[in-house]
Amino acid sequence: MKILNNNLIKPLVFLLILTFFFHFIFVSFLYSQLGSDNAYWHYLGWSWYNFHNIQEINLIENKPPGMMFMYYLSSKFYDVNFLPLKIVFILIKIITGYLIYKISGLILNDKDIQIYSLLIYFLLLGWKEFDSYNPVYSEVITTFISTLCLYIFLKARETKTFIFLGFLFSLGFMFKQTSLIFFIGFLFLIYFQSEVSKFKNNFLTISSFLVSFLFLIVFFIFLGLNFEGIFYQITNVLSAGTDTLDQISSRIKHFLLRWTGPERVFLFFSLIYVFYFYFINPENKLAKSFCIILILVGGGAHAVGTITGHQLIESIPIFIILFLIFLDQIFRNNNSLKNNFFLLPIILILFFPNINLMEYKYNFHNFSIQDKKDHEVEKIKNYVDKFFTNPNDTIYIHERDTKLLLQLKKRSAADHINTTFLYQSYGTGQPNLKEIQNVKEQLVLSKPKMIIMLRSYEIEAPYIDKINFFDEILQNYSLDNTISKYNFYLLK
Prior knowledge:
Layout: H1 9-30, H2 35-51, H3 66-78, H4 83-108, H5 111-124, H6 138-155, H7 159-173, H8 178-193, H9 198-222, H10 227-235, H11 248-259, H12 264-280, H13 285-301, H14 316-333, H15 340-351, H16 357-365, H17 375-385, E1 394-398, H18 403-408, E2 411-412, E3 423-424, E4 430-431, H19 433-446, E5 450-454, H20 471-474, E6 477-483, E7 486-491
Parallel strand pairs: 1-2, 1-5
Antiparallel strand pairs: 3-4, 5-7, 6-7
């Protein structure tokens, strides 16, 4: 079967792949700000590296310490700098695309269809709906690892293969708990695709996963973390006070907002895959196994209720592979559909990213290869630095964003370095009084040199003009200055 037998189509496909490859590189660098999540992870990694010999770091997060460890390494060599990890993660995305291409070749043995995997992949890497303009997310690592596991499994199925797969998935789990959901789906794949030793292969994979997981825990404890903190991170994902949505109405609203936009084509084809491979063409066991993984990973992305774009990244490789298998089946069963001139336009219509030239122009003119300096932050930093002569002096900032704390490069007086988990910020900003009390106790104990509060909390949790949770603490402080939106309190 040759669907690219036209002399014009094949060069055009390669040209489009190259075009959208450079589009991906362009937007990844163009949007220089990596957002509040990366500022949060960067500070934790920076703090971990700079202070782990002084105190036990009890990281407060709702995911395992993998991303913080990446910033731990980055901070060791580059201090506060987002660029190194941005480059690393861009390379990881490119390698993931290559793995999807190789997997497609192993399954289909048809280079004409296989080449479309790269086109679809780089088209999707231009989707803002998948937060693709920000390359640094934990899902990028877990997606790479799960895709690598698929390639290794399809390439070789020896005993050592399953041991290595277990190790890789334990590594992925250290970046995001949803890797465990892919792992469960992968166990179904192993079972249905193993001709012999189905239970043995799964046993080896699970055993390797558990042993590797324990070794990684020991490794992180050796680097300064404590078991209680790691356990808290891993199990905190669905706790009250995190970014999890508890109300059914809020979950329905977020679901509709997510799947009534351009990405509805993603949901539409996912449903088609399940229907086609389970009811129309159920003989393809590999595709059915991939459908199980897609369902599980999609369900995992929806578990917290917020359904942000980067939480859907892990579905992309399986989605593309199923799309190509579906194409292959359609072409095999319907010779009349093998027309070269229709497939390429259909793929472009389905997966073409939204390109905003005015937005590109604005970001291009404001682009800097280095992290851009914020003059307002520089003014604050010059003021704050006057009062900090010892690197072990502490500060506390009561704000959802961690960017200011990171740029100030000061040691936090509390484990909760921002207010993300102190209020249910996706709802009405309902205070988590237990965690707020923990922060207050830490402030009493550590007596930070400076406390920085927002002048008003009307535009972020808890969405009120002034909070009084810290009035008792602030009695020991005096208001020394007001800069921009911040009040600066000095210890009396």
